[in-house]
Amino acid sequence: MRALLISSIPSTAAAQDAAPLTPRALEAALAARPQGADADRLAERIRAYFGAEALLKGSAAPKVDDLSVAWALEIPAPAADAPPVRVVSDAVHFTMPLTRVGTGGLYAGVAALSHGEAFTWHFEAADRRMASASHFITERDRTDARRVKQLA
To answer: Which residues have a Cβ under 8 Å from the Cβ of 61 and sit 6 or more positions away?
Structure first.
């Protein structure tokens, strides 16, 4: 009976895989520093969350939830000695290195920003500027966030 109870307890990795990915969930998953198969599973979840094709094109929109913003990018065959992939704002002083996830060239990161913060940004990888994106806005009041996005 005891073996049955132990075998029916889900693993932490399986429980995390079942939960929907959000910026906060991604932040927690990255903080756990997964390795090996766990990191590859997280990479697949990130591809599903952002869109695999958009990640490869560098056009995946950041995911904004309240004041948490998540970015991800996939680059082919990153060099081992390449500088870190990062998100850089175009006008304000914001730079965030992204974390490599899994065995491929997938990078992701999450930042906690201030209420009402908005800026345009781009990725930098291997000392070159990559895809730029339009601005986003972080809002605590979701009604206001929808109104601002409609006006933009």
So the answer is: 50, 54, 133, 136
Give the integer Cα–Cα distance in Å for 78 and 89.
Answer: 22
Residue 26: DSSP 8-state: H
Tokens 């952002």 appear where?
A: 50
Contact 34, 46 (CB under 8 A): no
Output the CA torsion sign for 37, 38, 40, 44: positive
Question: 49: exposed, middle or buried (C-beta count within 10 Å: 0-12, 13-18, 19+)?
Answer: buried
Hey, what domains does the chain have and what are their CATH numbers? 20-151 (2.60.40.10)
Residue 8 has pLDDT above 80, yes or no: no
Q: Sorting pLDDT into bands at 50, 70 and 90, what band is 131?
A: low
- Within a 10 A sphere around the Cβ of 32, how many other Cβ atoms? 14
90: which DSSP letter?
S
Which of the four pLDDT bands, split at 50, 70 and 90, describes residue 101?
Answer: very high
DSSP for 106-121, written as a single string:
EEEEEEE--TT-EEEE
